[in-house]
Amino acid sequence: MKTHLLLDDNDPQTELSTLNLGPTHPATHGVFQNVLQLDGERIVSGVSTIGYIHRAFEKIAEHRPFYQITPLTDRMNYCSSPINNMGWHMTVEKLLGIQTPKRVDYMRIIIMELARIADHLICNSVLGVDTGATAGFFYVMEYREAIYEIYEEICGSRLTTNIGRIGGFERNFNHIAFAKLRKFLKDFPPVLKEFEALLTRNRIFIDRTRDVAAVTPEDALSYSWSGPILRATGVDYDVRAMEPYCSYGDLEFEVPVGSNGDVYNRFLVRNAEMWQSLRMIEQSLAKIEKEPSDIFHADVPEFYLPPKEEVYNNMEALIYHFKIVMGEIDTPRTEVYHAVEGGNGELGFYLVNDGGRSPYRLHFRRPSFINYSMYAPMSRGMLLSDAIINMSSLNIIAGELDA
Amino acid sequence: MGKITNEELLTSIKAKFEADVTEVSEPFGLLTFEISREKIIELLTFLKTDPKLQFIYLTDITAIHYPEREKPIGVIYHLHSLVNNVRVCIKVFVADGDVHMPTATVLWNGANWMERETYDFFGVVFDGHPDLRRILNVDDMTVFPMRKEYPLEDPNRVDKRDYFFGR
């Protein structure tokens, strides 16, 4: 990390200016403020203020049954909301001791990896925009749209998905969903290749990003960084590889790592991860075909929210529906910590349960919140224009930052 | 390097902090225990620097409130040994009138915002913290909203009262 610039207060040549970057500024990727002290264009010091869209999710979660917490998780990292949803469902499944069938696991991997691609696409293409190249952004937006169409086919919604249930999915993937998925797998790789070619060897892009905001692995670990920005420094910590959840252990994939932790490396790591995600989706699709095609949830009627048509026509389903919605299900009095690899890093759910209708305490370990704590200290000595690029390379999501 | 078991880990910790480690449990395989406020920084330093254990990664700091207990506020640390791929959860309980804790920023820079968040929501004062201010709530707030004495339920909702369900 660059050292703090020291200026002599009595020097008449030295005059600092204060700049409010945010709370609402086109270059900040959400609503938060950085008060920067500038010597010319160089940042001398900065103070970050966050919490402008704090919505007290942890408090609200203490008053809601497990299912009603799912829509809260959507609204944290809204660029990859299915990962948040499924992370939460897997936490509850761990608590309740539910074993999901293999087909459900692979279906989840497909959705989570699609979400990761959507998340990384936005981050990397916006990084291009921040360095002055808008073409890539417009180009890949179409493929985020294609991913959203797959979500829409599966759960009916696009951005805040509420996809899945405790134990599996609300409905099976239909043939249109699979067709859209196969079309995406066919169309997207050449586009990703072209997108990479547009920026990775681009002289201007390299000059703007190479050696900018370079972070050492020691600093990154000290600030508890996780996800692509930690891996860009050379630390190969990926929750999917280290503590495989949801049958990730069955798949072959690599964990891309960078070499010197600068903005360029973060871009490369995210790009490489998209290729790995495509690999995982291909493998999961192949594995799904060997599983019985009608299984899309675990056989746990006391926890799995029944489909509406069954609730209307089947007494048992009606009773279970009522018990689940009103929070009348029996749950063990214990605590659980479950982590998944979110778009930005380790997304952890710490759930303390007292057997009541709602969690006694629920804490979200939000990667954006933890990653962003280094932003002000690392901006010291940096040019203002570099600090902007640095912010987009961290992939700050204000919803996840504030929760 | 292979994964070290919870038994080995607990043996290593107990060799140094025999009498201080209490309430040991393993919910879903995660070694969890309590320790006193006086020993916490010593323990964290040991876990971080011990060449065998290497808990170099501070995953999270948060807190919990049990208003009925003698020491109601619990501060919870999650550590991860990336080398051995094992996690540990450490809890420290403090009394309501004396909600002070030593800061972990001496060991990890990342503890800075985690402790600010814990202070903001539970009022835990981390002694020695470089910049202990509220982080997500407004500065002039006078309460610590995640404590249990501040319930959230809409008072007009009568359909969710416990007595309707025999509780």
UniProtKB/TrEMBL annotation, chain A:
Residues 130-402 form the NADH-quinone oxidoreductase subunit D domain. One of its GO terms (cellular component) is plasma membrane. It catalyses: a quinone + NADH + 5 H(+)(in) = a quinol + NAD(+) + 4 H(+)(out). Its EC number is 7.1.1.-. It is found in: Cell membrane. It comes from the Bacteria. GO terms for molecular function: NAD binding; NADH dehydrogenase (quinone) (non-electrogenic) activity; quinone binding. InterPro entries: NADH_Q_OxRdtase_suD, NADH_UbQ_OxRdtase_49kDa_CS, NDH1_su_D/H, NiFe-Hase_large. Keywords: Cell membrane, Membrane, NAD, Oxidoreductase, Quinone, Translocase, Transport. SUPFAM superfamilies: HydB/Nqo4-like. It is a peripheral membrane protein. The keyword Cell membrane applies. NCBIfam families: PRK06075.1 (NF004739). NDH-1 is composed of 14 different subunits. Subunits NuoB, C, D, E, F, and G constitute the peripheral sector of the complex. Belongs to the complex I 49 kDa subunit family. NDH-1 shuttles electrons from NADH, via FMN and iron-sulfur (Fe-S) centers, to quinones in the respiratory chain. The immediate electron acceptor for the enzyme in this species is believed to be a menaquinone. Couples the redox reaction to proton translocation (for every two electrons transferred, four hydrogen ions are translocated across the cytoplasmic membrane), and thus conserves the redox energy in a proton gradient. NDH-1 shuttles electrons from NADH, via FMN and iron-sulfur (Fe-S) centers, to quinones in the respiratory chain. The immediate electron acceptor for the enzyme in this species is believed to be ubiquinone. Couples the redox reaction to proton translocation (for every two electrons transferred, four hydrogen ions are translocated across the cytoplasmic membrane), and thus conserves the redox energy in a proton gradient. This is NADH-quinone oxidoreductase subunit D. It comes from Mucilaginibacter ginsenosidivorans. The gene is nuoD.
TrEMBL record, chain B:
It is a peripheral membrane protein. One of its GO terms (cellular component) is plasma membrane. Its main location: membrane. It catalyses: a quinone + NADH + 5 H(+)(in) = a quinol + NAD(+) + 4 H(+)(out). It is found in: Cell membrane. It is an enzyme of class 7 (translocase). Its EC number is 7.1.1.-. Keywords: Cell membrane, Membrane, NAD, Quinone, Translocase, Transport. InterPro entries: NADH_DH_suC, NADH_quin_OxRdtase_su_C/D-like, NADH_UbQ_OxRdtase_30kDa_su, NADH_UbQ_OxRdtase_CS. One of its GO terms (molecular function) is quinone binding. Residues 34-154 form the NADH:ubiquinone oxidoreductase 30kDa subunit domain. NDH-1 is composed of 14 different subunits. Subunits NuoB, C, D, E, F, and G constitute the peripheral sector of the complex. Belongs to the complex I 30 kDa subunit family. NDH-1 shuttles electrons from NADH, via FMN and iron-sulfur (Fe-S) centers, to quinones in the respiratory chain. The immediate electron acceptor for the enzyme in this species is believed to be a menaquinone. Couples the redox reaction to proton translocation (for every two electrons transferred, four hydrogen ions are translocated across the cytoplasmic membrane), and thus conserves the redox energy in a proton gradient. This is NADH-quinone oxidoreductase subunit C. It comes from Mucilaginibacter ginsenosidivorans. The lineage of its organism: Bacteria, Pseudomonadati, Bacteroidota, Sphingobacteriia, Sphingobacteriales. The gene is nuoC.
